[in-house]
Amino acid sequence: MNLKIGVIKGDGIGPEIVTEAMKVLNKVAEVYGHTCDYTQLLMGGASIDVHGVPLTDETIAEAKACDAVLMGSIGGDAKTSPWYKLEPSKRPEAGLLKIRKALNLFANLRPAVLYDELKGACPLKEEITEGGFDMMIMRELTGGLYFGERKTEEVNGVMTAQDSLTYNEEEIRRIAKRGLDKANVLDSSRLWRKVVEEVSKDYPEVTVENMLVDNCAMQLVKDPKQFDVILTENMFGDILSDEASMVTGSIGMLASASLNETKFGLYEPSGGSAPDIAGKGIANPIATILSAAMMLRFSFDLDKEADSIEAAVSKVLKDGYRTIDIMSDGKTQIGTEEMGSLIAANIQ
Ligand code: NAD
Q: Which position among 134, 181, 228, 242 bears the catalytic label?
C-alpha cells in the first residue's frame, strides 16, 4: 500500500520526535511491503517564520490531499519567543485551531496506558496502580470554549462540567456516536447528557455513567482503573487528559488521534513543543511513534503493522531503555535518536 502522509514537524522538539516516528514508519514499510509518500507541511512558528501566518490555505489544501497527517507539536516559549508578540490570531496555536476546524477533526482520542515497565514513573501509590490501567479519553475537539461562537447561549451561572453549553445537539451527537463503543462514558451538562443518553440507546452493550468533571478529576488519581472511556467536551478533555498523562508517568508516552467522519486523521503526541528541552536530543519520541501506530490502525486499517510498533515499544521498555523523562534506577538512559532506532530495530 502507498501511504500518503502529510508531515508537520512543527516547533521545539517537534522535528526531533517526528524524525524518529518516520524512522519507525519507514522500517514498518520495509518489513510489510508498503511505501511512505511524505508531504512536508509548515504549521505553527515554523510557518510564521516563512509565511507570516501559522497556517496557510495552501497548506490546508495539501493536508487534505493526504490520507493522514503526522504532527510533532507547535509553539514556543511564550515569554521569550517573538511569535507571542503577534496578535493572538497569528500565533502558533491559532494554526492548530484552524487545521482542526478546516479538516473537521471533531473527535480526539487519547489513550492513557500505564505500562507495567513504567510503574515506577507513576506518582501514585502502588496499591492504586496494581495491575496497571488502560483508558481512552475521547474529547470533542472543534467546539466548546476554544471556539466561542455560542459561548453565552445557555449558561445559567453554575459552571459545572459541560455547563458552558457551547455545543449544539448535532455536534454532541456525532462525538457521542464515535465514542460509545466502550464501557464507561462521562458527561455532565444537561444538553450533553440528554444527547449522550439518547445516542446510547443505540448501543445497549455500552454502560454509560454520568460524572461531574470535578469528581472525575479526583477519581482519576484515586482509582484510575475504573475508567475504560472518558467522553467529554473540549476544555475538560484537555485538562483531564493532561492529568491522565501525569498518572501514566510522562506526557512523552501519550499518543493521540484527531479524527473526522472519514478515515482521515491528524496524529500527534499529547504533549507540546517542550521548548525547555528542544535541541538537546533528550525528548521522548515514544508518544509520536505510538501516534504513528494509531495512524496505521485508524487511517490505513493496518492493524498488524500498528501492533508491531506497539510491541516494539514494549520490548524496548522491557529491555530497560529509557529517555530521561521516564528514567529510573537500574535502567539505561538513552536519547531521542537512539530510542527511535531501537524501536525501529525491533519492528517484526
Ligand atoms: P509541554 O507539553 O511542551 O511541556 C510540559 C513539560 O513536559 C515540559 O517540562 C517538557 O519538557 C515535558 N515534555 C513534553 N513533551 C516531552 C517529551 N516528548 N519528552 C520529554 N519531556 C516532555 O507544555 P508547555 O510547556 O505548557 O507548552 C510548550 C509549548 O507547546 C507552548 O507553546 C504550547 O502552546 C505548546 N503546545 C502545543 C501543543 C500541540 O502542538 N498540540 C500542545 C500543548 C502545548
A: 242
| CA dist., res. 245 & res. 239, Å (int) | 10
Which residue has the CA at smallest separation from atom 30 of ligand 1? 272
CA atoms of 231 and 208, how far apart (whole Å): 10
| C-alpha of residue 225 to centroid of ligand 1, in Å | 26
Strand, coil or helix: what is 195?
helix
The contacts of residue 164 (CB under 8 Å, 6+ apart) are: 144, 145, 151, 155, 189, 233, 235
User: From the CB of 249, is ligand 1 less than 6 Å away?
Assistant: no
272 C-alpha vs ligand 1 centroid, how far in Å? 3
Tell me which residue has its CA closest to atom 27 in ligand 1.
272
Respond yes or no: is residue 134 known to be catalytic.
Answer: no
pLDDT in tens, the chain (348 residues): 999 999 999 999 999 999 999 999 999 999 999 999 999 999 999 999 999 999 999 999 999 999 999 999 999 999 999 999 999 999 999 999 999 999 999 999 999 998 888 888 888 998 888 888 889 999 988 877 666 543 333 333 333 333 333 455 666 565 555 443 333 444 446 777 778 888 888 888 888 888 888 888 898 999 998 888 898 888 888 888 888 888 887 889 999 999 999 999 999 998 899 999 999 999 999 999 999 999 999 999 999 999 999 999 999 999 999 999 999 889 999 999 999 999 999 999
